[in-house]
Amino acid sequence: MAKVCYCADDFAMNPEISDAILLLIQTGALHATSCMTQAEHWSIAAQQLKPISNNIDVGLHLNFTHRFSSANTTFSLPILMLKAWSRQLDSKLIQQSIEQQWNAFVELMGKQPDFIDGHQHIHQFPVIRDVLVHFLKQQNFQGWVRNLQHPLTISNYTIKTRLLSALGAASLASQCKQKNIHQNHYFAGIYDFEHKNYAQLNQQWLMRAQDNLLIMCHPATQAVDQQDPIAQARVREFQYLSSSQFRDDCRIYQISLSPMDTLL
């Protein structure tokens, strides 16, 4: 059986997202989630997550593009990419923000994150990855970092998948390896969020699954945020992951679900 970990991004972004993730953890569909500690909902969400946090991987979802507050260091994604690749990002501000998000996690969860990833995969960008890897080494980090170096490509999404991988995955992998920081090997979950048949996408990923596969997802119980461009996709993901069809698909494709830290 292929050992796979489903990880939900964006925990604490809003109550509907957090509720969906908590429910899916309880059913055994999810074994990892990454938290947005700048969110107003974080303190309440953390209290709900902490009692079950030893049974799954709980990570920090580093954010530099979603504006929760004017006090946070954030950019639009195009501007962040431009500044990162032109090396115009202020590394001190980046480190300060990473420290703030990290400390907010540790304060409420009572431990270091089990893993690190990034909202819109920004943790693999130039400057950010440099500061992040150095920071993790300083913290004697024992967890793992999400990596997109070996993504599973499926029809219609090959270009997007390879593009996201090309935005720093190899460099991040090299830096983590040099510092002896663990990473997932295979990665899936990339699509355009417009595809109406989420089950079909998952079946393609599961069909190609190998051990140490991390599948990213973004579930929510309801689409309440009109400013969220993937709100409807979140609901479709939740409906599938909470369905008997998902359990059947895992059985058909001989998938064993578990936390990523047990697969490394």
Tally of individual domains = 1
Q: Write down how many β-strands occur, each being a DSSP E stretch of 2 or more residues.
A: 10
- Secondary-structure element string: EHEHEHHEHEEHHEEHEHHE
Uncertain spans, ≥5 residues at pLDDT below 50? none
User: CATH homologous superfamily, by name?
Assistant: Glycoside hydrolase/deacetylase
Rg from Cα: 17 Å
From the spread of the alpha carbons, the general shape counts as globular
What is the share of helical residues?
Answer: 40-55%
Largest sheet entry? 10 strands, parallel
Q: Tell me the distance between the termini.
A: 16 Å
Keywords: Carbohydrate metabolism, Hydrolase, Magnesium, Metal-binding
Cofactor: Mg(2+)
Pfam family, one: YdjC
Protein name: ChbG/HpnK family deacetylase
Describe the structure.
The chain has 264 residues and is of the alpha/beta class. The chain has one domain (2-262): TIM Barrel (Alpha-Beta Barrel), CATH 3.20.20. The chain is 41% helix and 16% strand. It has 10 helices and 10 strands. Strands 1, 2, 3, 4, 5, 6, 7, 8, 9 and 10 form a 10-stranded parallel beta sheet that branches. α4 packs across α5 (128-138). The two termini are 16 Å apart. 45% of the residues are buried. One of its GO terms (molecular function) is hydrolase activity. Keywords: Carbohydrate metabolism, Hydrolase, Magnesium, Metal-binding. This is ChbG/HpnK family deacetylase. Its cofactor is Mg(2+).
